[in-house]
Design brief:
This protein is α/β, with parallel strands linked by helices. The chain is 43% helix and 21% strand. It is built from 13 helices and 15 strands. Helix 3 runs parallel beside helix 4, helix 5 packs across helix 6 and helix 8 runs parallel beside helix 10.
């Protein structure tokens, strides 16, 4: 029998406390060691004419990451943000560092096609999962099985043709010299048979469109198809039309892709844009109530300078990714497998309706809308699916 003296009892108590503290420390250290950090690269044009899109995108993804991190203790998202400048060269140098040195787990965003094409090729070679909710050049579909995207020029061209072929006879085609716009230009010209009377390209920093616009004076043009990638170039083109006294003649015969929905464009163009048409995702007022509710909540702490519907599309991206993470998919390979399971036989119901990825990793099911600008507001002309 062991007899405890008072001193022995005290020593036993002290020893017990030490053991408890030690065990607690072990538990705390174990919990800390079990925190999983997922590195996600966010790339966008932050210092280019399309900087409004890039800034909106970075602000949104930061908001989502902060919200996720506040709600989760053992999983954290670390964003690594880079300015891609809508440049393949800048995206290439950035992605090489991020994959080789920073060891990012995935690439969450590409706005400009030139960024996504350049970064996507390197990501594919290194098996780093990439999701681009906005980049749309046809070449992206051919990069490989680690590169997914939501928005496709092939769908844009097809739906634009479905809408326009009965009305478009003789057209003038003006194209900004970017991967996105030139890819759409090629698709429109070679896939569909237009009677093109004027076919000109211009650089993204072009300010003087007087010479290009002057060609419209001597051609019997029925429609102007304008393929631009920023609000500033589109506004400069409209100003040139106005200076040449051609705006009234053509204002209701201009159609272009996605610029209409930008608040920055609507404010900058003012009355010049009245009567023009766009092909784009439906603006916020035509989306679901859940979309509107999310944007209302988001706007309490953030400003949207370009497209609310684009922010909703990016919310789809983050929802899908976070669902994959919550299902214990932390690596590029397991996240890719999660995305592969969203297919025609297993679609997903989202803000934009029922969608899935096809064999080329393009999202199928997004609605498109022909829009018309009337007194600074967007009006629906036709919904296309």
């Amino acid at each position: 029998m062991m007899i405890y003296t008072t001193s022995k009892k005290i020593l036993s108590v002290i020893a017990g406390i030490v053991v408890i503290i030690w065990l607690s420390g072990c538990t705390t250290n174990k919990q800390i060691s079990e925190i999983k950090t997922i590195k996600i690269w966010v790339i966008g044009p932050l210092s280019w004419p399309a900087a409004t899109f890039g800034t909106d995108g970075v602000n949104f993804y930061t908001y989502i990451a902060d919200k996720f991190n506040a709600e989760n203790k053992n999983i954290q998202i670390q964003l690594i943000i880079e300015d891609g400048k809508c440049s393949g060269k800048d995206a290439t140098s950035a992605v090489q560092k991020l994959i080789m040195i920073d060891k990012v787990d995935m690439i969450w965003w590409g706005m400009c096609s030139s960024e996504t094409i350049a970064a996507g090729k390197i990501a594919q070679a290194n098996k780093v999962f990439t999701i681009a909710p906005i980049s749309s050049a046809p070449e992206i579909s051919e990069i490989g099985d680690y590169v997914y995207r939501f928005y496709s020029d092939m769908e844009t061209a097809k739906n634009l043709w479905i809408y326009a072929y009965k009305e478009f006879t003789n057209i003038a085609l003006f194209t900004e010299n970017t991967d996105y716009a030139m890819g759409l230009n090629t698709k429109l010209k070679w896939e569909y048979k237009w009677n093109i009377l004027v076919d000109d390209t211009f650089q993204s920093d072009e300010k003087d469109f007087a010479l290009l616009v002057s060609k419209l004076k001597w051609k019997q043009v029925d429609w102007i198809v304008l393929l631009t990638q920023s609000e500033s170039t589109t506004i400069s083109f409209l100003k040139a039309l106005e200076a040449a006294n051609l705006l009234e003649k053509f204002r209701s015969k201009i159609v272009w892709v996605y610029i209409c929905s930008s608040d920055t464009f609507l404010k900058g163009a003012g009355d010049m844009a009245n009567g023009m048409r766009c092909f784009d995702l439906p603006p916020l007022e035509y989306l679901s109530e859940s979309s509107k509710t999310f944007i209302q909540e988001y706007k309490k702490t953030n400003t949207i300078n370009s497209f609310p519907s684009r922010i909703v599309l990016q919310k789809e991206t983050t929802d899908m990714t976070i669902d994959a993470i919550n299902a214990w998919n932390y690596t590029s390979d397991t996240i890719k497998q999660y995305f592969e399971n969203i297919n025609k036989t297993n679609p997903r119901q989202w803000y934009f309706g029922e969608v899935y990825f096809d064999s080329k990793r393009n999202l199928v099911g997004l609605p498109y809308m022909i829009e018309k600008i009337v007194n600074g507001k967007i009006e629906k002309v036709q919904i296309l699916n």
